[in-house]
Amino acid sequence: MHSKADLGLFYRGLPVVVTGGAGFIGSHLARALVGHGAEVRVIDDLSGGTLDNLAPLRIQEATSQASAAAARTSIRTSPPPIRFFRSSILDAEALARCCAGAAVVFHEAALASVPASIEQPRRYLEVNVLGTQQLLETAVKCGVRRVVFASSSSVYGDQPALPKVETQLPDPLSPYAQQKLTGEHLMRVWSLCYGLSTVCLRYFNIFGPYQRADSAYAAVVAAFANALLTGRPLRIFGDGSASRDFTFVSDVVQANLLAGAAHGLDAPPSADPLLAGGVVNIARGERITVAELARLMSEIARQEAPPVFEPPRAGDVLHSLADITRARQWLGYEPKTTVRAGLEETMAWYAQQ
Length: 353
Ligand SMILES: NC(=O)c1ccc[n+]([C@@H]2O[C@H](COP(=O)([O-])OP(=O)(O)OC[C@H]3O[C@@H](n4cnc5c(N)ncnc54)[C@H](O)[C@@H]3O)[C@@H](O)[C@H]2O)c1
Description:
Distance between the termini: 37 Å
Mean pLDDT: 93
Bound molecules: nicotinamide-adenine-dinucleotide
CATH architecture: 3-Layer(aba) Sandwich
């Protein structure tokens, strides 16, 4: 178990990598790591993220080996800038430069839309599976001590049993969900075969500032916020009775910081089930329906916004609720932000944009 002060001690000066660190969750995590004094590198091809997400942090682009070496010496300045590698994780050379000397890698980079994964399964496979394996191979070569993997509640599929417990058999319903499950298996196998300590966090519907609202596949909170601010109707896929365990982004950041530090970096994967690809649900542990979410967000925005109902989307699960006992016991994780408080902060952020 780690207090905030312990985490500060653990991460101070520690070289860490956030793949996909210009995305929604990765940028929050990178900011938190900088706040704890870590030496942060980010690799992102900006296919889904943007450097604006990392504002107001100082960013130093690492464009060549020479500049990477120069950046290593410049990290002595306080606070050090984030070293940013504008590259795909599929570029082995860039990934190796980014990971050289890093202790912990937080693997957030992915193509992350369920409907798009059904339309482009091969493109998704390359980034989400081959990219993840490439990351693990690079981590071993570079002497990385731990990889924390962003998995997804979608691996559970639509099994009726709620809440979802890690011991339940997965049942992925889309290429995206299957690829996240494969990613978990890769983590475990790299722990068993190569001694790399790995942790898999299954995120449940994360929301908050910096989440993209402008894509056809925007997550529901971002899409509703955008619709409310632009006076458009709230589009609900299905009849609104689908339910989700909405989790504020600062809670998922907390879980990552705890997973990166758990048991210290000297513990081998055999020391604890967590460290050999252990799977842990990260959520709030409560659910609301999409119709309730629409009502709550309309109330916060002080707007009458009658929803428009559209056919359910292929690959979407109906109900999702996490059992977070393991997160509490294994990580000392405790969700801190209520859905309402998180939505108020999120709506205020979108209103400023
Ligand atoms: N947001 C959620 O509710 C949620 C739920 C479950 C799991 N996840 C997982 O969490 C992680 C972060 O999700 P997010 O919501 O922040 O998504 P995001 O799209 O905002 O972030 C993903 C980032 O990865 C980058 N990326 C994509 N392909 C890349 C590549 N080949 N090389 C380098 N960078 C690449 C994108 O540019 C983007 O910045 C993802 O792995 C996602 O699957 C998210």
